[in-house]
Amino acid sequence: MHRTLSQSIRRTIQSRVSVTTPAFRYSVRVPGQQFVRFNSTKPEEKESTESTTNAAEKENQKPEEQTTNGKGNESGEPAEHPEFKELKEKLEKKDKDLALMKNHYAKAKADFRSLQETTKKEVQSAKDFALQKLAKDLLESIDNFNLALDHVKEDTLKANEEVKNLYEGVDMTRNVFEKTLQKHGIEKIEPLGQKFDPNLHEATFEIAQPDKEPGSVFFVQQTGYTLNNRVLRPAKVGVVKSEDK
């Protein structure tokens, strides 16, 4: 009886194991692919199916976990990395420093050019007026020549040949002095008959003269000179006085 019962149980188990009804069903959807598998009643196949399903679910959950773990924000935009943020701040600081240095460079360049122009003008001015002191001393010699020549009368020149030759020699020496001064930019002021100019002339006296224009120069007491268009010495003159005065 026991033998018969054990044989019956064995047959029943064998029939359940050997007879299987395969069934088709779709597996869990995995991003980017879809597959079909056979379902079986065997424990090994069931466990493998469950592990595949769990793996697919974990893969689907990874992006969400990454978003909630600090790699994203509520708006869906990725969070800025601390190192990237630090490098960005350094770059902005460098840009500001560069703009500031360019501004300083432009100002320094403009100041340098202005200094060059000023220095150039000062050097040229020093060259033009370096002879100012020497020229003033030479003007006194010319004045002495003029005084000597003006005191010689025409009758004396006609009567005495030696005085005439001396007069011509002094006159030639004065002309050489004046030409030499002209080469160095020293020009004579010729005010006779011109309108009185306080920038060029120095009035020493005034006399009313009906036949001449009031305010004009009618007499030159001392000749004036300019050095490169700058007054070296004003001319001392006599001016026609106005009748209303």
Automatic annotation (TrEMBL):
InterPro entries: GrpE, GrpE_CC, GrpE_head. Residues 37-84 are annotated as: Disordered. One of its GO terms (cellular component) is PAM complex, Tim23 associated import motor. One of its GO terms (molecular function) is unfolded protein binding. It holds the Pfam family GrpE. PROSITE patterns: GRPE (PS01071). It is found in: Mitochondrion matrix. One of its GO terms (biological process) is protein refolding. It comes from the Eukaryota. Residues 56-65 have a biased composition (Basic and acidic residues). Keywords: Chaperone, Mitochondrion, Transit peptide. Its main location: mitochondrion. Essential component of the PAM complex, a complex required for the translocation of transit peptide-containing proteins from the inner membrane into the mitochondrial matrix in an ATP-dependent manner. Belongs to the GrpE family. This is GrpE protein homolog.
